Amino acid sequence: MKIAIIGCGTMGMIYAHNLGKMPGVQVSGVVDLIQESADQAAAVSGAASYTDWEEMLEKEQPETVAVCLPTYLHKTFVLNLAQRGLHVICEKPAALTLEDAIEMEAACSKQGVRLFIGHVVRFFPNYRNAFDQVRSGKIGEAKMAQFKRYGSYPQGVDLWYHDRAKSGGVIMDLMIHDIDFACWIFGDVESVYASVTKPSLSGMEYAQVTLKFSSGDIANLTGFWGYPGPFTTQFEISGNEGIIRFDSNQVQSLDLKVLSGVNGQIDAVQVPTSPTLHDPYYDEVKHFIECIREGNEPIVSVADACRAVEIALACNRSAQIGLPVCMGGISS
C-alpha cells in the first residue's frame, strides 16, 4: 500500500518512523511547509520530500494519506482527500466542532473511502489490558474511575496549540484521550461538569472534569499542560470486587487488586511512550491499514471520535458557565 504523510511535526515524524519499517507499506511522499521537517521525515521513511501537498499527491499517487496537521486544518484536508478518492488516517481530535467532524465522516462515506481518527490510547497495552480486565469481570462491576494526563506546555513551532480557536485547549487536545477511553469502559455520557484555568503567561493550563454516564457510573479526569516533569499518565478503575491502578512513572504493568475470596531534550509537544516492547503508534496505524485491506471495522470508530469531540465541547461549555451540562446537541 502506498501511503503519504501530510505534516511532518511531532506526530508526522512518528508516522514516518513507523510506516517506514512496516511490511507491505511504501511511504511514497511526505510534505511539510518547512523543507527541513519534510526532509527529516523523508530520511526515516524512504519517501520523496515535498513542500507542496498537491504536487506530492499528483506525483506520488498514494492510496492512503496520514493527516498529521494542526486540528484546525483537519476538515479542509480530509474533505479534499476524500474528494480525490483517498483513504484518510487523521490525527485526533477529529475536528474542533461536531458539525465539522460529522461532515468529514459524511464526505468520506459518500466517496466510498475510509476515515480513521487516531485515538491511540486504545492501543496502549496497559490501557487495553485494563479494558480487558474490566470486561472480563476481574474487578466485578466497574463503577468509577480517575484518569490523569500531564505534559509540558507545547513549545517551539507548535505555538498554534496556545490558540484555543485552533487547538481547542487542554480538554480538546489532551484530555480527549481519556474522554474516549472512559467512554470505551463505561459507555455513553449523560452529563459533564468541568473547571479550567485560564492559560498563564508561563504556559500552564489545567482542567478537571467529572463525567456522569448513563449507567450512573462516574469518572473524574484531570488534564494538565505545564507539568514540569516527564509526560505522565495515571488511572484508577474501581469495581465492587477490586481495583485497577496504573502510573506511568511507577510501574510497567497494571496493579490489580481484588477482594479476598473473589475469583478472578524537551520535545515541542510531549507524547506518551509505552514501557512495553509494543509501540502503540505502530500498532494503531497497522490496525487501520489492515481495516482498509480487509474491510474490517476499527477498534475506534469515527462515531466514537465524533462523540469524544462532542463531550469535550460540552466540558468546555460547562467550564465557561460554571454549571453541569447535559449531553445531546452540544455542537460548538
UniProtKB/TrEMBL annotation:
InterPro entries: Gfo/Idh/MocA-like_OxRdtase_C, Gfo/Idh/MocA-like_OxRdtase_N, Gfo/Idh/MocA_Oxidoreductases, NAD(P)-bd_dom_sf. Pfam families: GFO_IDH_MocA (PF01408), GFO_IDH_MocA_C (PF02894). Residues 1-119 form the Gfo/Idh/MocA-like oxidoreductase N-terminal domain. SUPFAM superfamilies: Glyceraldehyde-3-phosphate dehydrogenase-like, C-terminal domain, NAD(P)-binding Rossmann-fold domains. Belongs to the Gfo/Idh/MocA family. This is Dehydrogenase. Gene3D superfamilies: Dihydrodipicolinate Reductase, domain 2, NAD(P)-binding Rossmann-like Domain. Residues 133-326 form the Gfo/Idh/MocA-like oxidoreductase C-terminal domain.
